[in-house]
Amino acid sequence: MKKSKIIMLIAASLLLTLFIFPLWNITLEAPQYPDPIGMNIHINKIADMNPHDIQNINLMNHYVGMKDIPENMLEFSIFPIVVVTMFVLGILFAITGNYRLFLIWFVLMSLLGIAGMVDFYMWEHDYGTNLSQTAAIKFTNEDGTPMAYQPPLFGTKTILNFVAHSYPRLGAVALILSIGLSLVAFIFGKNENKKL
Amino acid sequence: MKTIKILLPFLTLILLFGSCSKKGKKSGGALAGDVAEKVYVAPGEHDEFYAFISGGFSGQLSVYGLPSGRLFKVIPVFSLDAEKAYGFNEETKPMLNTSFGFVPWDDAHHPDISQTNGELDGRWCFINGNNTPRIARIDLSTFETAEIIEIPNSAGNHSSSFITENTEYVVASTRFSIPIPQKDMPISEYKSNFKGTMSFISVDKETGNMDIKFQLLMPGFDYDLSHPGRDKSHGWFFFTTYNTEEANSLLEVNASQNDKDFIAAVNWKKIEEYVNNGGGKKVAAKYAHNVYNDHTHTATSTIKDQVVMVDPRDVPGAIFFLPTPKSPHGCDVDPSGEYIVGSGKLAAELTVHSFSKMLKAIEGKKFDGEAYGIPILKYDEVLAGVVKQPGLGPLHTEFDGKGYAYTTFFISSEVVKWKLGTWEVVDRKPTYYSVGHLMIPGGNSRKPFGKYLVAMNKITKDRYLPTGPEVNQSAQLYDISGDKMELLLDFPTIGEPHYAAGCPASLLTDKSKKIYKLEDNKHKYAITKEADAKVVRSGNEVHIYMSMIRSHFAPDNIEGIQVGDKVYFHVTNLEQDYDVPHGISMIGANTSELLIMPGQTETFIWEPKQVGVWPFYCTDFCSALHQEMQGYVRVSPKGSSTPISYTLDGESTSGK
Questions:
Q1: Which of B85, B102, B178, B192 is nearest to B604 (CA)?
Q2: Which residues of B touch A52 (CB under 8 A)?
Q3: Does the interface predicted TM-score (ipTM) exceed 0.90?
Q4: What are the residues whose beta carbons fall under 8 Å from the beta carbon of A57, sequence distance 6 or more?
Q5: CA-CA distance, B56 to B152, in Å (whole number)?
Q6: Which of A37, A52, A134 to mutate against chain B (most B CBs within 10 Å)?
Q7: Which residues contact B504 (CB under 8 A, 6 or more apart)?
Q8: What angle separates helix A3-14 from helix A99-129, to the nearest 10 degrees?
Q9: What does the alpha-carbon distance between residue A159 and residue A151 come to, in Å, rounded to a whole number?
Q10: Is B576 close to A52, i.e. CB distance below 8 A?
Q11: What pLDDT band is residue A165 in, cutting at 50, 70 and 90?
């Protein structure tokens, strides 16, 4: 079998790991939490980093009027369908061996990846700024605007007494690898084509 | 004249040691430069050892860290504890049930940690109640009392609660001999009519549940302390006796006449076999067995009605008496199991018996008569050696695992280090004051951790700032890692610290429970979510199924309660976060607050006596909005038509 085909097969298969590994993690550190609390963001759920973390994050956040971390989101049903579709498409493309299709898959996946990040940012923004009017504690910035509690999209940020870390996890690594490999498959395919 | 002759050498010794002590204090062993560092545990760092120190007449068990001497917890065992609602809430009341009814206090004496192959395994800690004979098992994953079993046919449960090297048995024996079975008879007929018992309580390997396997009906002596054989002597148990005179009055004189009392050596494996083969007699006995369940968060008390009683004369070759001078107190077996140290508290020497010589003497029938059918072995045939002029009033010995023994001396107020085998005294250090027992972590096991020694003192006097006539008891910490002992620290203790058990912290820290899982909560009145909160009336009983979470109760307004009702607050803490308990108390409740751990349910009863609107609130500062965690109950006159209603999430709901 041609190398490009094999690489494309691997690239598409890597997507399946998203059903196991989280894409992203947000961890919160504070003096009174010697064991930091956090959540793992999967394509189909937001899960505890350690048992009961989400309940405990919700308990803390409700004082400043933040909503509970959702158990159900539209994304949780859409993302798995998109991932499975792209996996099937990737496998089909690989079987055809048409390297141009690999490029199409690469572009499609990149766009979907960016769309996912945008969606993640929008949720975070809503989560951190759309606060309940009846919050027990209302902090404001120096300019008088309500304080926002949005965790960083990527990186580390201090939010009141917490330090929030937001970084990719194995799922995101696999995703990037998958997208990268599809490009590699395209290049290999192109070269193989030339040789012929 | 005779008395004077006896006392004279003692007085000389007192003077000698007395001056020694003073000198020791002035030179200030504890003032040495690096001593403070040795007990300093920096903020945020942890102690190396746990010490479980008996709370004596407080009835509780205290948990300290070593070397810092910091108090971490008081575990309620035999006495009511309003702080933790132990014995006050409906769930733990059965723990203090006995054949005499609810007994809210006891005198806690000797803790011992469970072992496997003679080494500490850190699963459970046992401790005895001395007054109303009981043995408790504390779960070392929750640091809570998990089980209490009453010991029938016993009085003054002192020679307890020591365990065999695979925790096969925890042993309890009687201090006061009594008529068995109890009956109305003249006290003056004590001699040969009163009996003592030794109880062997089996411990389930998995659950730790206790069951009295058999009781030995022993002569009417006083049984003081005991220790199991170790290693080579595993299968035997040794008990000190006093009052072999069988006096029943003015014991301080009448029980101090015999030159030698006994250490009873009991081959429990032989008796166990006898019982397993149907031996022993089932006799009627009434006693309570109380078990706490971590899933229902509720204790149950069962009254049992019989025990298997074994007459030693029916199992020849199972029990022997080792003559031991002058009312021995401590009975301590070294890590190898060869030496049995008898601390004759009125003797001038310390007696050490040899296990292998004992076996030989038994084989060779080297007897010196018998007592109530139990052979008395010849003193010289079992003696391994004596520690000469060790001090005054030896009480108790533990071992460092490096060939040394450490004995406390009550009268001369000191700890004496001596060498096993040569019996020579190698070091002595004063204690302040009047030391009882001592503890080396693992010091009564096959594998002692010979780094620290805790001396538990009976008298405090001037060691701390005065607090009126009553001052706490006191413990002292010694470094025993070097050739010479070094006094490091004084720290106050609750009640009277009779004895302690210690273990490396690493044995317990990883398995220490942080929360109770809500999903495992099988309490009859538990609710696992706020929406399930409700108020249910049945006759004049009202059951409130309440939840608590930062920072509110559900429900928090309750109406329709009437004067004369019996209101049950069944409160579940919905938290699943470490160290977030909530408390609750209701104005006028004739009981303590509840202190409820995450995932746990507890109940208190409130019987409103006056019409009005009465508040309840969270008693444990739980969060930034703790002060807002409160609610009201409206109490109407008896027969009022106000229906049961309550608020959930700010909305009013009618009850059933």
A1: B85
A2: 515, 576-577
A3: no
A4: A28, A37, A39, A69
A5: 21
A6: A52
A7: B48, B49, B50, B441, B449
A8: 20
A9: 8
A10: yes
A11: very high
Which residues is B16 bridged to in the sheet? none
Q: Is B577 close to A56, i.e. CB distance below 8 A? A: yes
Q: B550 in contact with A at a CB cutoff of 8 Å?
A: yes
* Chosen from B577, B622, B627, B649 to mutate, greatest number of chain A CBs within 10 A: B577
Say which residues have a Cβ less than 8 Å from residue A105's Cβ, sequence separation at least 6. A8, A11, A12, A86, A89, A90, A93, A182
Residues in chain B: 656
B649 Cβ under 8 Å from any chain A Cβ: no
Question: φ, ψ for residue B360 (rounded to 5)?
Answer: -65, -45
Q: Are B108 and B129 in contact (CB under 8 A)?
A: yes
Separation in Å, CA of A52 to nearest CA in chain B:
6
Q: How confident is residue A196, by pLDDT bands cut at 50, 70 and 90?
A: low
Q: Does B270 contact A at CB distance below 8 Å? A: no
Whole-Å CA distances, A177 to A5, A8, A172, B71: 16, 11, 8, 54
Would you call B549 and A35 a contact, using CB atoms and an 8 Å cutoff?
no
Q: How far is B520 from chain A (nearest CA, A)?
A: 14
Residue B317 sits at φ, ψ, to 5 deg, of 80, 10
Give the closest residue to B574 by CA, choosing from B590, B555, B553, B603. B553
For residue B555, give both structure tokens. 């429900």
**b vs e for A35-47, b when ≥16 Cβ sit within 10 Å of the residue's Cβ?**
ebbbbbbbbeebe
Residue B345: per-residue pLDDT: 87
- Whether A71 has its CB under 8 Å from any CB of chain B: the answer is no
* Tokens 């998958």, located at residue: A178
> Are the beta carbons of B594 and B602 closer than 8 angstroms?
yes
Task: Tell me the per-residue pLDDT of B44-94, one tens digit each, with 9 for 90 and over.
Answer: 999 999 999 999 999 999 999 999 999 999 999 999 999 999 999 999 999
Contact state of B576 with A51 under an 8 Å Cβ cutoff: yes
What is the token pair recorded at A131?
Answer: 């606060």
Q: What's chain A's length in residues?
A: 196
Question: B171, B136, B138, B178: which is closest to B154 by C-alpha?
Answer: B178
Dump pLDDT digits (tens) for B354-394. 999 999 999 999 999 999 999 999 999 999 999 999 999 99
Report the alpha-carbon distance of residue B398 to residue B404 in Å, rounded.
Answer: 9
| Residue A1 forms contact with B (CB below 8 Å) | no
Q: Which tokens go with B467?
A: 């607090």
Strand partners, B228: B237
**Which positions in chain B touch A136 (Cβ < 8 Å)?**
624-625, 628
- Closest among B453, B458, B504, B619 to B121, alpha carbons compared: B504
Query: How far apart, in whole angstroms, are the C-alpha atoms of residue B436 and residue B149?
Result: 27
Lookup: tokens for B44: 């945020």
pLDDT tens digit sequence for B253-286: 988 888 999 999 999 999 999 999 999 999 999 9
- pTM assigned to the model: 0.92
Question: How many Cα atoms sit within 13 Å of B440 on the Cβ side?
Answer: 32
